[in-house]
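In this section we walk through a basic example: taking a raw amino acid sequence and producing a predicted 3D structure, encoded as discrete structure tokens. The instruction is simple. Fold the sequence below.
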Amino acid sequence: MKDEQKITLITPLNWGLGHATRCIPLIQEFLQKGHQVILASDGRALKLLKIEFPNLKTLELPSYNIFYPQEHFLLRMLLQFPKVIYAIIAEHLAIRKIVRQHGINEILSDNRFGCFHLKCQNIFMTHQINIIIPNHFLQNIIRWINKTWINTFFDQCWIPDVEGSPNLSGKLSHNIPMRNVPVYIGTLSRMKKLEIVEKYDWVAILSGPEPQRTYLEKKIIKQAKKSRKSYKALIIGGKSEQQQQYEITENIQYISFLSTEALNEAMCAAKVIICRSGYSTIMDLIKTQNSAILIPTPKQTEQEYLAQHFLAQGIFFSQTQEEFDLEYALESVSQ
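The resulting token sequence is shown next.
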């Protein structure tokens, strides 16, 4: 079938904004190839896609609706497992209806396990085949389920990284035997390096699941207000559903959301970026060549691994959310 005849459904997971943002360059590429592209997700991810691609059809999928607990993390996440299974079944039923109604013949699922159809070319995109959890026995079970599911229901597995070394995802997605041999498609970022005047001492980019996104936002704002130094700064809330903008102090502004172009300019105008250690964010930082302070989402083992991975290489500085100290972190980056 020729490229111009393809109707491609792209379905990023709504877990922070990273899955949606890294799909943006792929959406643009599919459009350039002449595909008809339809987008489907939920929550903030879907809202972001509507903002970035106002002329494309967008559809809503059932939400995974995962709550990220602070205490008794592993137990409380396991208790949410039935809810995840229900969401996967619900989204698969939704996909069957969407394929029938819109004539879809290709599906690109970014970490949505129910987004496949027997009559379509099914592509699963992830940077984490080797899932990390703090229990070796459960980890082996989860890894087996993850690889078996991808091998069974998807025709290809795309990894947004390079195959060789050096690479960004490390042990998360390298040296892994699979029937569907992973296709390394290179890093994906909607950002680019801009040569513009430096405007901010630091820019904080908030993202990720609630309530942890809000916890970090409050911590950064509290420390910024008490800072002894008059930093020129910008805090971006990562709330694609809001349009708030106000001054926290005379030198520190808050804005709930920025478009790709505006965010790109803000990043390139900053000395330092403060952000989560999500994989999509790291791909953006590599592209813009920013210095950064990485703060992994508590108990999100993939982000904890990536933060330590880049800290050990001296590429980015990192602190835990609990121990985060704004002034100390900024001083450490400047050394």
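Looking at the output, two observations stand out. The chain has a mean pLDDT of 91. Residues 81-102 form the longest helix (22 residues). In the next section we compare this with other chains.
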